[in-house]
Amino acid sequence: MMIKILFAILLLILAGIVLRHVFFSFPAQRSADYAADTPVFDIRQAFAGPVEAHGIIYGPTGRVTSRFRAIMRGSFTNEGGVIEEEFEYASGRRQNRAWHIRFGPNGEISSTADDIEGRAEMEQKGNALRMRYRLRLPEDAGGHVLDVTDWIYLMPDGTLLNRSQMRKFGVKVAELFAVMRPMAGPAE
């Protein structure tokens, strides 16, 4: 009898954890939550010129595990575009990524990159852009594939604030925060 009660309590706790994750967590946000917020985010404008980013990556314990600087350059047409990213980490490691973006007929946006499995799905509403994708880490970082949810928020002065969570089997393993600002001159 006692085992059945403990099992029922355990199931209730697990159900609570799942419900919290599905309805009240960072990945559960919806783009529609930001539809009325201004200024309006347009990926073509936000990444039209060189953009400089500074950010940190937190590990699963919440401690900073990495810092980085990145330069991003975007070029767009009506059908799509490319955002090229050049990262330099505090460790000295460098990484490049090119997002190949496609605009769909009903406002949907998708993208591919060499280290992304399948397609990244994007949605812009109000002052926010949400991206969801599966990121394959470099071999020297374990080669794991992580489920990533990115939110980028446009501020009135043109600054972009980026918060990302990376999960493996539904468990948060890393989080990223970055501040991105348009550069005044050519990228260094």
Question: Which short descriptors sum up this protein?
Answer:
about 190 residues, globular, about 50% strand, 10-stranded antiparallel barrel, 2 domains, DUF3833, 2 helices, Lipoprotein, single chain, mainly beta, Lipocalin
Radius of gyration over C-alpha positions, nearest whole angstrom = 19 Å
Number of DSSP-assigned strands = 10
CATH class of the largest domain: Mainly Beta
* Beta-strand fraction estimate: over 45%
How many domains in all? 2
Helix tally equals 2
What's the order of the H and E elements?
HHEEEEEEEEEE
- Tell me the span between the first and last alpha carbons: 69 Å
Instruction: Give me the secondary-structure category.
Output: mainly beta
Task: Please state the second-level CATH architecture of the largest domain.
Answer: Beta Barrel
Helix content: 10-25%
Annotated CATH homologous superfamily of the largest domain? Calycin beta-barrel core domain
Word description of this protein:
The chain is mainly β. The protein folds into 2 domains: 1-28; 40-182, Lipocalin (Beta Barrel). Helices cover 14% and strands 51% of the residues. The chain has helices at 2-24, 43-46; strands at 51-58, 64-76, 80-89, 94-103, 109-112, 116-125, 128-136, 145-154, 160-168, 171-182. A 10-stranded antiparallel barrel has the order 1-2-3-4-5-6-7-8-9-10. A hairpin with an 8-residue loop joins strand 7 (128-136) and strand 8 (145-154). The chain is globular and about 70 Å long. The model has no long low-confidence stretch (mean pLDDT 90). InterPro entries: DUF3833. It holds the Pfam family DUF3833. This is Lipoprotein. It comes from Thioclava atlantica.
